Amino acid sequence: MSTTFDLVAVGSGTAASTAAFMCAKAGWSVAVVDSRPFGGTCALRGCDPKKVLLGGAEAVDFVRRMRGHGVSGEAFIHWSELLDFKRSFTEPVPGERQEGFRKAGITTFRGRARFVDEETVAVDGEHLHAGNVLLANGAMPAPLPFEGADLLLDSAGFLDLDALPDRIVFVGGGYITMEFAHLALRAGCKVTIVQSAARPLVKFDPDLVDRLSDTTRRLGADLHVGTRVTRIERRSGGIVLTGESDGGAFRVEADLAVHGAGRVPELDDMDLERANVTRTERGVRVNEYLQSISNPRVYAAGDAADTPGMPLTPVAGMESRVAASNLLEGNHRKPDYRAVPSVAFTEPPIALVGLTEHEAVVSGLAVDVRHGDMSDWFTYRRVGARAAAYKIVVDRDRDVVVGAHLLGSGADELINLFALAIRCEIAVGDLKDTLFAYPTHASDAAHMLRS
Fold first, then answer.
1. What SS3 state is found at 435?
2. I want to staple 111 with a disulfide (CB 3.0 to 4.6 A). Which of 123, 133, 328, 342 is the partner?
3. Which of 164-173, 232-241, 268-277, 419-428 shows the lowest per-residue confidence on average (mean pLDDT)?
4. Is 80 exceeded by the pLDDT of residue 440?
């Protein structure tokens, strides 16, 4: 059986749905294909459910920090209740997304999509003839080159655990590991982190990451850097992970091992070669309009596309809008990756936007780097915060911020102010002279820029 559509979008998350709705609104016949429940990673298995669970960790951490400062008693995470709360957000999503597709006139298909030829996608034996295809099917955990890697639980599985085990080991040191580790630590778990690089969160400012690492260790985590996993095996007592480091052999026992060592585009089983779609390890090779360089019928967005964009939901949405605009009107619009903020929702959170200090120097800019510890500033001292710091990179010649790096409560919101400043090239003098509501995190920005 074969059906013809103007657009077949593979995936049902932000990168796929945004374009699908835009094209359907313009009168195109649109199909959406997904092998998982409709809604995508962010809404079902990523950002949103993670943030709901982390709300429990934030509450527990706040109470513990304020003990002896007017707050008494103890706070605990009741995992089953917290999980039920999380599911109240995620469980309605597939039905609501499918109903949204239906109302928009979008046809939905459940199953794995594979190319038959340059203009045909097969889904469970049905052939979808596509005038255009948007590959927006996201990412999956990166394959790991050691025996027993199949014993690792992925992030989706962790977010749906009915109970947290006593001992958890996280392999890798990226967003997933650090965020989940901080949640598990507040829930009373024994946490071990095994990272092959010299520090976790390698994209963030190293000085701030070192401070966050110290905090993570103070919370009770065993954080091992420069350590390579060589094997994982199941024993009667749980999981045994072995590895190597400069200090010699490494071994840890746990009840559960979690994959936090990166994600890659979920494209391997799509038979891209049949459609003449060229890809790299980072995704489909696209031109500046998000169009495949080898098959003009195909566009890609989000984690499936090899672009300079970070693997973040706002980037996926922006790329999807760009792809839809180019599909509907011809190639005329390019994605804009300026000043995209990123946050690791540890407790406290760490955030970045723009250039790191190293990147600014390498690029040849004459920069002033304004940095300092904020733990004794009113904003942080009043809530018992022990880790708070900043680093602001200023282009001396233009007197504008080109990079901002924050650690501390409120960093996840304050980083947006700096993103706006970088994107709009607001002069440092104007930022310092702006009157922000006081006392707030934003009101500290002027002090960061004066130092």
1. coil
2. 123
3. 232-241
4. yes
